[in-house]
Amino acid sequence: MVSLLGWGYKNDKNVTVDMLQKIQLILTDPDLHCNVFAPPAPNPLPKEIYLCSEGHLTKGACRGDSGGPIYNEELKLQLGFTSFGGNVCGQSTPMVFVRISYYIGRCLLQKSTYICQCAEGYSGPFCEVELSN
User: Fold this and answer.
1) What is the tally of structural domains in the chain?
2) Does residue 94 belong to any structural domain of this protein?
3) What domain range includes position 68?
4) Which residues pair with 25 in a beta bridge?
5) What is the pLDDT of residues 62-74, one digit of tens each?
6) Are 48 and 78 a contacting pair, CB within 8 Å?
7) CATH number (domain holding residue 89)
8) What does the CA dihedral 15, 56, 71, 80 come to, rounded to 10 degrees?
9) What is the dihedral of CA 70, 94, 52, 81, to 10 degrees?
10) pLDDT tens track for 24-40
């Protein structure tokens, strides 16, 4: 289970929010639920780049939520950012998120210290150093 945060619209009628919204989602296999989008979305979605959540009738990302985090509260680990979904909010359309680990590696908070595993080809405390071949 992951949490999604956002300041996006509450529904498809452009109702704005004045408090940060949070919902719980279950990530799923992109091959099963997220290969329903037409170009420019890649089809099939590369699993190493994207995470996917099934759509729900009453909750999900909406306009304005893009770029918001999805994270695992138990591990204190941000997994990705909201990327895209359907054109209508809350209509059972899957939601797609960009994996952080694909771009900058994986960091865990352990006893107040970040331990990072950088993506292939990168090193440094923030995975900012590109290794030459």
Assistant:
1) 1
2) yes
3) 2-101
4) 2
5) 888 888 999 888 8
6) no
7) 2.40.10.10
8) -90
9) -30
10) 888 887 777 677 665 66
